[in-house]
């Protein structure tokens, strides 16, 4: 088991959108930049376009087909080794995109006793309804969702050509969310080490 005090906290940044022409990677790159600037965090971006997951689940007790197993193998170990997650999500019909739910559902213990922060974007709502629905789903998976979020309302108007938000308040929001994520990630990594989480 990893040393609870050893090394930076591995943070998986998951891009929730797989849409052609999506905006998600711009947001993900921005928050990943903030993560890598911090001495106590590292960032690994998980893009569900680069590593798509199967959408048909096997019957209970049935082994995965080879192709599905290979697709899972490209994602699952990366979630398993993460100490923390940041989910970057748009809002689709007042919720979050189906490929993100699929990625969540393929996994279970990979989420246990780990913190999850959110960066959301959308129209007037800024993706906040997607985030609130994610909290409910992730609670079922024994994850700890972070109170503060970063949200971009009318996202098309608040990012500059350099791929960064124009409002300095976004930087402060990112710092607050990542400070809380870091606290929880340290606390939960140490706790998992001391007493393995039993679901
Ligand atoms: C299927 C679909 C449903 C959407 N529903 C909402 C919505 O409920 N609320 C909202 O603010 N924006 C909604 N939008 C607009 C998205 O927030 C916007 O298109 C955003 O760019 C999507 O993220 P993406 O570009 O990374 O895919 C929707 C977009 C799509 C494609």
Automatic annotation (TrEMBL):
Pfam families: FMN_red (PF03358). InterPro entries: Flavoprotein-like_sf, FMN_Rdtase-like_dom, NAD(P)H-dep_reductase. Residues 10-155 form the NADPH-dependent FMN reductase-like domain. This is NAD(P)H-dependent oxidoreductase. It comes from Streptomyces cheonanensis.
């Amino acid at each position: 088991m990893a040393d609870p005090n050893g090394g930076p906290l591995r943070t998986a940044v998951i891009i929730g959108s797989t849409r052609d022409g999506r905006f998600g990677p711009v947001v993900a790159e921005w928050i990943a930049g903030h993560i890598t600037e911090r001495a106590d965090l590292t960032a690994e971006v998980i893009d569900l376009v680069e590593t798509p997951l199967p959408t048909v689940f096997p019957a209970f007790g049935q082994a995965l087909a080879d192709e599905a197993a290979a697709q899972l193998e490209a994602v699952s170990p990366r979630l398993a080794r993460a100490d923390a997650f940041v989910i970057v999500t748009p809002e689709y019909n007042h919720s979050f995109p189906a490929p993100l739910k699929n990625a969540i559902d393929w996994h279970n213990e990979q989420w246990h006793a780990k913190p999850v922060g959110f960066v959301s974007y959308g129209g007037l709502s800024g993706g906040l309804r997607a985030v609130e629905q994610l909290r409910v789903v992730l609670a079922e998976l024994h994850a700890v969702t972070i109170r503060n979020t970063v949200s971009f309302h009318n996202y098309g108007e608040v990012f500059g050509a350099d791929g960064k938000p124009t409002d300095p308040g976004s930087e402060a929001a990112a710092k607050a969310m990542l400070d809380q994520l870091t606290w929880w990630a340290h606390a939960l990594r140490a706790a998992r080490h001391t007493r393995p989480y039993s679901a």
